[in-house]
Amino acid sequence: MNPLVSIILPVYNGEQYLRLAVDSLLHQEFTDFELLLIDDHSNDGTPAICREYATADTRVVYIRNEVNKRVAATLNVGIDAAKGKYIARMDADDIALPARLGTQVSFLEQHPDITLIDTWMTYINEQNLPTGFHNAKVFEPKEIRRKLAHGNVLGHSSIMIRTKVLKEHRYHGTTYEDYELWLRLTAKGHWFQKLPESLLHYRIHTASITSQANTDKSHFRKQAEAKASFLRHELRRFAWGWFHTRVTVSMLRDYFLYFYKKAKR
Question: Distance from the CA of 78 to the CA of which of 9, 149, 159, 249 falls in 20 to 30 A?
């Protein structure tokens, strides 16, 4: 019998925090899940840790890429392998609070009109100490849809989504692959919601993508590239509407800010 939830956890050389992440999932109050550990051809202690968990707990499935495929392709490997009705995402350096999966499953079961449910995240540092919150004021579907045209207000490590939708659309190999996917799903009429409760500890450290985005002036360029990738996809399917226009204007603004900040350096 298939599990209700498939958790996709991609990891590359993540031995430092991997055990904390996996343990937080294996100790969830909700237990009807499979945990897909997708090792993107790590060369540290990650493979040994993954094999250890897969041997000890039948819910853990270890998959190792034969070559390094990067994030988007690795996530698609997990999508192909997922057997659950829902897919939950998790990063190898984050910590899920015990009620996370159960709370998100309950919401999606009760709201068939919502494709994806996110949750507030608490930022933590290398010492597991809280440092702030992520987009804690944005949670209603219409508000999320409006703000997505300008920038990403959803987490990635904290989302749960209906599997059939993700198997149909998948990730594209572009910058900010999650944001580009949210744009495509929004354009197709899918609705997202965010629970006003912190159910994930999201780690910010020097190697994390969020930390780099907060300090790297090329954030605006990368965000614009994600929007450009989305718009090219939509033009190929001859789709256009008010949402696309808003994304286009926002993309041009991102490029302007990138070149402006670059010129000031």
Answer: 149
pTM: 0.93
138, 120 Cβ separation under 8 angstroms:
no
Does 219 reside within a domain?
no
Domain CATH code at residue 105:
3.90.550.10
pLDDT at 57 over 50: yes
Helices 46-56 and 18-26, packing angle to 10 deg: 20
Q: What are phi and psi of 61, to 5 degrees?
A: -115, 125
175: phi then psi, degrees, rounded to nearest 5 = -65, 145
Residue 55: domain span: 5-214
Closest Cα partner for 151 from 122, 119, 183? 183
- Is a pLDDT exceeding 70 seen at residue 207? no
Note whether residue 90 is domain-resident. Answer: yes
- Among 40, 88, 43, 36, smallest CA distance to 62 is for 36
Three-state SS at 161: strand
Residue 208 burial (C-beta neighbours within 10 Å; 0-12, 13-18, 19+): middle
Give the 3-state secondary structure of residue 195.
strand
- pLDDT, one tens digit per residue, over 213-256 is 444 568 999 999 999 999 999 999 999 999 999 999 999 999 99
Measured between alpha carbons, how far is 161 from 246 in angstroms, rounded to an integer? 25
SS3 80: helix
